[in-house]
Specification:
The complex is a heterodimer.
Chain A: H1 22-43, E1 47-49, H2 50-53, E2 60-61, E3 66-67, H3 70-82, E4 86-88, E5 95-98, H4 103-116, E6 123-125, H5 126-131, H6 145-157, E7 161-164, E8 169-172
Antiparallel strand pairs in A: 1-5, 2-3, 4-5, 6-8, 7-8
Helix pairs in contact in A: 4-6
Chain B: H1 17-55, H2 59-119, H3 122-148, H4 152-169, H5 180-192
Helix pairs in contact in B: 1-2
């Protein structure tokens, strides 16, 4: 697993307090957004649990003894949700899915891969897409199945795919 | 193949029974692949464990482990054969579907051809050709009539003018004698003809 490259803000203590001043706050949230997305892209984790988030290195810089408060995390996550980069999984908004590509971007990636492999009009298992040998070099290799289902559902809307058998298989068109 | 059991959702599903069968086979294949991965992990672990046991001087236990490892390797080989069978079956099924598509394509093409032939029967073609010939003849007559409108004197004048233009366009006759090389090329040309 590749190491996360921390931005300079990460060692800057005020970064861990949500700023009051509007302009500063916008910049701060933008920095947090890209940090969160990069972090999840590199670690290939798609699920973030706000109850445990403060224990991860992402929100807790032990070197400067600072961590982002829970409200701050939720604020940023809600901002990410606004642009389609995150989605809460439960009503209490404890568990979040993080999309470093939005679902539409993912859908494009998957669909172009399908086209390249000549798998149009064929049936695929979801395992084949996320863990098969064919997709080993793709970014979605090893992606969470739940997210893959959502990606394929996005494709379903544009009639490029159809899921069947309890989301076990998919056919591309 | 491809029979839908009257499943009328909001919109017609494009997934056929055939696809479902293929999916099941592919799922089976995935399961076997996962199983193989598991066994491979086990093998690696057993090997390391056997090494450790040997170092600790527990030869009998190491031997037992190696026996287990050998057994698992055999299983792995057997699953490989099964995997191959499955893959073959999947390929056969998919190829059958493609063949079906080809036949369907041929059918459509054939029907289109038939329809075109219905329009183009032989009598019609003959009639059209006849009419075309008549038309051409008529045109020829008209051309003759028009050309005949010129008097023989006019024709002569035309010929003369043409002759003049040709004379003017012609290059001058070269003054010097043709060299030997020219003669050679000439003979070559003659031979070629």
């Amino acid at each position: 697993m590749a190491e996360v490259e921390w931005p300079w803000q990460y060692s800057f203590p005020p970064f861990f307090t949500i700023q009051v001043h509007n302009e500063t706050r916008t910049k701060q949230i933008a920095a947090w957004r890209s940090l969160i997305l990069d972090y999840h892209k590199i670690t290939k984790h798609c699920i973030l649990d706000t109850r445990e988030a403060q224990r991860t290195a992402l929100f807790n810089n032990t070197a400067i003894d600072r961590k982002l408060p829970l409200e701050g995390i939720v604020t940023i996550l809600e901002d990410l949700a606004r642009t389609g980069n995150a989605q809460p999984l439960d009503k209490q908004k404890h568990r979040w899915q993080i999309y470093w590509h939005t679902l539409e971007e993912w859908a494009d990636l998957v669909y172009s891969w399908v086209q390249r492999c000549g798998m149009m009009n064929t049936v695929c298992t979801l395992y084949e897409i996320t863990d098969g040998d064919n997709s080993a070099d793709e970014e979605f290799h090893g992606l969470d199945t739940e997210i893959m289902v959502k990606i394929l559902q996005t494709l379903e809307v544009s009639k490029k795919a159809e899921l069947f058998d309890d989301n076990q298989g998919v056919k591309f068109f | 193949m491809g029979a839908l059991f009257g499943k009328s959702k909001k919109q017609q599903s494009r997934v056929t029974e055939h696809d479902k069968a293929v999916l099941q086979l592919k799922q089976q294949r995935d399961e076997i692949k996962q199983y193989q991965k598991r066994i491979e992990k086990n093998l690696e672990k057993d090997k390391q464990l056997a090494c450790k046991l040997l170092q600790a001087g527990k030869k009998e236990r190491a031997k037992l482990l190696l026996r287990k490892k050998r057994f698992q390797e055999q299983i792995l080989q057997r699953t490989d054969i099964q995997l191959e069978n499955l893959e073959f079956l999947v390929h056969d099924l998919e190829f059958c579907q493609i063949e079906m598509q080809v036949i369907n394509g041929l059918k459509v093409g054939n029907e289109a051809l038939k329809k075109i032939h219905e329009v183009l029967n032989v009598e019609e073609v003959e009639k059209i050709l006849d009419e075309t010939r008549e038309g051409v003849e008529k045109q020829q007559e008209i051309d003759d009539l028009l050309a005949g409108a010129l008097t023989p004197e006019d024709e002569e004048a035309v010929e003369e003018e043409l002759e003049q233009i040709i004379q003017a366009e012609m290059p001058d006759v070269p003054q010097e004698e043709p060299t030997q090389q020219d003669c050679f090329i000439e003979t070559l040309l003659i031979q070629d003809i």
